[in-house]
Amino acid sequence: MMSSTFKARLLVSCAAMTIAGFASAGKASAQTAAPPASGQTQVEEVIVTGYRSSLGKALGAKRASIGAIDAILAEDIAAFPDQNLAEAIQRLPGVTIDRVGGEGRQISVRGLNADFTRVRINGVEAIATGGGNRSRGFDFNVFASELFNSITVRKTQSADIAEGSLGATVDLQSGRPFDYTGFKAAASAQGSLNSITDRVLPRAAGLLSWSNPDKTFGVLASVAYSKRQPVAEGFNTTRWQGADASDNFAGCSKCATPAELAKVQNAFYPRIPRYTASKIDSERLGVTFSTQWRPSSKAELSLDVLYSDLNQFTESPNLEAISFSRSNAAGVGATIVRDYAINDRNTFTYGVFDKVDVRSENGTQRDHTTFSQVTLAGKYAFSDRLRGQARIGVANSDYRMPEQISFQLDRNDVNGYIYDGRQNDRTPIITYGFDVTNPALFTLTEMRSAVQTSLNITRTAGGDLEFDVDQHLKLRGGLDAQQYVVKYRGANRNQVLTGANQVVGVGAFSKIVEFGRDFPFPGGDRKYVVADIGKALAYTNLLSYPLVVLQGDTRDVEEKDLSGFGQAVVDATIFGGMPLRSDFGFRVAHTKVTSRGFIGSGVYLTANNDYTDVLPSMNITLEPRDNFILRGGVAKVMARPTLGSLTPGGSVGASTRTVNFGNPDLEPFRATNFDLSAEWYFAPESLLGVAVFYKKIDSFIANQTTRAVYSSLGLPASLLSTSAGVSVNDIFDVTNPYNGEGGWLKGVEVQYQQPFKFLPDYLRGFGFIGNFTYVDSSVNYGTKAAPNYNKLTGQSKTTANATLYFERGKFSARTSLARRSGFLTQFPGSNGNSEHGTHGSTYYDFSSSYKLRPNLVVTLEGINLGDKFTDAYVDTADRVSDYRHTGREILLGVRWTY
Length: 898
Fold this sequence. Notes:
CATH topology: Maltoporin, Chain A
Largest sheet: 22 strands, antiparallel, barrel
Domain TonB-dependent receptor-like beta-barrel: 411-865
Domain TonB-dependent receptor plug: 62-168
Keywords: Cell outer membrane, Membrane, Receptor, Signal, TonB box
CATH superfamily: TonB-dependent receptor, beta-barrel domain
Distance between the termini: 42 Å
Signal peptide: 1-25
Oligomer: single chain
Number of domains: 1
Family: Belongs to the TonB-dependent receptor family.
Helix content: under 10%
């Protein structure tokens, strides 16, 4: 639902902007259509600017490329067409995004998730990591979009592009002074209003650029700041528990026969059913600096500096039934089913339970990510035929969680707990059987505090030469060296209170919270007691307890990559004048990995691994007729394992007889890519294109669980000493990643773009850009002896994007749709569920601007206007895992340029 105040503001703002825009457009149309004076000849000059201009330039870059690319360019100085980089990239064919906290965070390209996508900033590779990211996936939400003026997604591999991607290479380019002429300045300010919070928050950006008249020297600086306070409101179960002898209820008072009891005991029930309303306070600051020097027509030197700081504070109060997540006599083993309803998917839709343990949990977490990158690049023309370029850069992504605090307030053995999802399983009615607003009925039983850090350092150096053999043939060659350093650390001061240390009655350090501000809440208990974190810290002195280092969370990886390439580039005509452009060559890459980590308690391991890949590639472009282009590409590609999975560290569960650890011997994902496309540029600024692609995946990393005698694992017996009755001769379940069998991925992309110049004069100004992608895949998540096939995690079968725009006179507007079908997030599933996944989604955005003066523009934008809910599930039976939303967002602002 949307509050009446917010609806009124939204409707008035949109109506005012639209009426003013069309009035201005109509006035401009009338002026354009006025007949010429007698004896005069009217010459109409059409100058394309704004969003339409950026589309045309991006189309030109696509057309000029030999390989398959798509691009997005800023429509004006410091005016990127979306608020978030990931949300901008999702407009491109085959690209989808994962949203966290109401904004795009990571991307998938052609069905391959963020781990398979390589990102370069200002020409050198970087890894940007936010909270919880321990992969190679790039977190785009670390950066403000105003800091960049172009994004290029390279979908086919070329020998001169460094290895590391199965899906795509994404190039982000920040502004440089030679992009503009003379002195330029820009500033923007916006107020952002969220439909759940009804708070107006600031977003601002500024840019200054200067270059001398000859463009031999220039400097540029930009800054961007934004603040967001979304609320992620919804219902969550964590997972559902399947039938297991250790998870049987204590009894069923309604069950009249053994068959009814067996039905209850074998049905799936929610592990931690709860309403949740996470309040997020996010603050982002970004700064860029660039200087360029061109001492002569043969030489150019560029220095680019990028800094970003993302601070987030999250508070997450929950009221939950924790008995269902405890597989012991004190948990499910003590719970009695008084009444129930089980559907045809073997799932509890309704239940009345006795002897249920209820927990009120409130936690806060601070996440702080700083990203910095310095890049020095130069190019020099040794002669008219020989050119060279070199680059060196270092990027640091430093994530710190300096504070994670939570307090657990319990009331055990509650009778009359009701879970009722019969009306809507996404918004069930939950009542707890007692007054959940009375602090005297709760007991403080646990308190937790943790810190965590993740440091990613990327150092890059490289250079290449290009030689013109003649007007039709160029030869290229070069070297690239990269070093990745990853350091993970963690510690906690968790305290489980027992006996007299428990605090009965929590009125001295609690508060009442209410759930359901803008959620389709059907009923139940929506106000409840939680710990007031500030008061609870003062009452318990939790932070005075010493931090205990988590050895299983202490991991280090150093990866050194050295590669070189050779390539030929052909530009010729064949068959009576048909243009042909092609590049073909190979890249040789050597990877050396040193990884370290603890397993169990106190056992520190070091491991080494290295491997070499030879990666040939070829791209060819033909133009059999004017404005019609055929492209083809084939390449061997590789993507290295996630850095976190390479450490030998892990954990040993002696009592459960389990071992979990990484695998430092992992080799990369390897595949062969095939691409074909046809592009028809049937009119100016227009395109109709079709692309088909196939990826033969030769090696796919999956997790395996095997059974082995503990003594054969090479681990010390001391790790078992704390568990009575456990021997080194016992068989353990050993889980770790391994290089399994491969699979395949195939798909087709269709894109269409055109300004509607054929419309009547009074409707001119409209245009459309859209695309549709279909992807299918199959990989083996099991072993050769026990195969288990499914599609890739993160892969949607269909994605579609559509933007209808209007640009005329002083007014510009566009409305966009981004649609993706459902996708897997984990396979195989856990707790007896076949899989974990997320249902499909459709997002609607709106943007408009009106020129008050040539250099002063007022803007109105709407993000997630449909207030789409994220709907995550487990199992093919579609049991709800997480159902939440973050509201609509409206931004009203001004932009000034000079």
